[in-house]
């Protein structure tokens, strides 16, 4: 199938195998707009592989139910060979690649600075930054003027700094920098590059953050949730669907938006900013 301007749009979403994650919600929202989606995630070796593959198949089924097409592709964003294979599979299955959503991320680098090991710095950098760098580079030859769009999933931790967020803060700042650099460089080629900066979103990662906050402050989970929600002006955590809405808008209808970092945080503070 050779790509034409009338062909359905195609997308690759990283980190899309968790049922309540932002990646899965984004894939389903794209499917609702008729987009063909490569649904990808890290498939670890060993016992957990089957569970992750089931999660990916479940996301793919939800994309199809929503009206889109889907293909499941295992993809560890720290593995260059897997990145190239995933892009090839997307292009050969759907005839092109229009939208790249760099959603995969790790929160393992959330820790006070003095306690962070080199290993956690390196893991955070490899997943959160180099994953998006390498995927964007591999996608570039396929992205077409007027249709091509990259959306990076940063964080409010990429807009400001709060004590205790460690390598997560630093790498999400880098994702914001990457977004602006690529927007400046790829604009003349008709490719838009934007990011979302989610605040507290109720996903597996968001739940883990709440547990960490509870443990650090010797609170119950309920007390930690109440304290955290108390700092959000809209008075609640966000949902993966609400972030997916913003991602899909940036990926499609927002035709004159590039280089933007859209906060999806219910007006919560981003911490220390310049
Ligand atoms: P999640 O844990 O459901 O999603 C993270 C995904 O990244 C998972 O599917 C995981 O398997 C994948 N991943 C991790 N390492 C990977 C690797 N090496 N290769 C490929 N995939 C890998 O959590 P959530 O919340 O949906 O996170 C999605 C994105 O949103 C992440 O980038 C996260 O940093 C960001 N975010 C989340 C917030 C929240 O409150 N939940 C707030 C701000 C940003």
UniProtKB/TrEMBL annotation:
PROSITE patterns: ADH_SHORT
Pfam family, one: adh_short_C2
GO MF, one annotated term: oxidoreductase activity, acting on the CH-OH group of donors, NAD or NADP as acceptor
Similarity comment: Belongs to the short-chain dehydrogenases/reductases (SDR) family.
Keywords: Oxidoreductase
Keyword Oxidoreductase part of the UniProt annotation: yes
Descriptive protein name: SDR family oxidoreductase
CDD domains: SDR_c
GO biological process, any: fatty acid elongation
């Amino acid at each position: 199938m050779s790509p034409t301007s009338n062909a359905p749009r195609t997308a690759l979403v990283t980190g899309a195998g968790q049922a309540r994650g932002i990646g899965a919600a984004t894939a389903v929202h794209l499917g609702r707009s008729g987009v063909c989606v490569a649904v990808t995630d890290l498939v670890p070796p060993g016992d957990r592989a089957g569970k992750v593959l089931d999660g990916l198949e479940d996301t793919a089924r939800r994309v199809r139910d929503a009206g889109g097409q889907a293909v499941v592709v295992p993809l560890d964003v720290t593995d260059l060979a897997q990145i190239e294979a995933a892009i090839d599979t997307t292009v050969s299955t759907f005839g092109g690649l229009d939208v790249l959503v760099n959603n995969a991320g790790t929160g393992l680098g959330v820790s006070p600075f003095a306690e962070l090991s080199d290993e956690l710095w390196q893991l955070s950098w490899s997943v959160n930054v180099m994953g998006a760098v390498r995927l964007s580079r591999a996608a570039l030859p396929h992205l077409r003027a007027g249709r091509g769009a990259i959306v990076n999933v940063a964080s409010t931790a990429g807009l400001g700094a709060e004590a205790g967020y460690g390598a997560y803060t630093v790498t999400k700042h880098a994702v914001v920098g990457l977004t602006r650099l690529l927007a400046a460089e790829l604009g003349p080629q008709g490719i838009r590059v934007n990011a979302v900066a989610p605040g507290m979103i109720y996903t597996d990662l968001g739940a883990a953050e709440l547990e960490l906050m509870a443990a650090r402050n010797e609170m119950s989970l309920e007390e930690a949730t109440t304290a955290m929600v108390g700092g959000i002006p809209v008075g609640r955590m966000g949902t993966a669907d609400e972030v997916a809405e913003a991602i899909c808008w940036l990926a499609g209808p927002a035709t004159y938006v590039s280089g933007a970092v859209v906060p999806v945080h219910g007006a919560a503070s981003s911490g220390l900013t310049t």
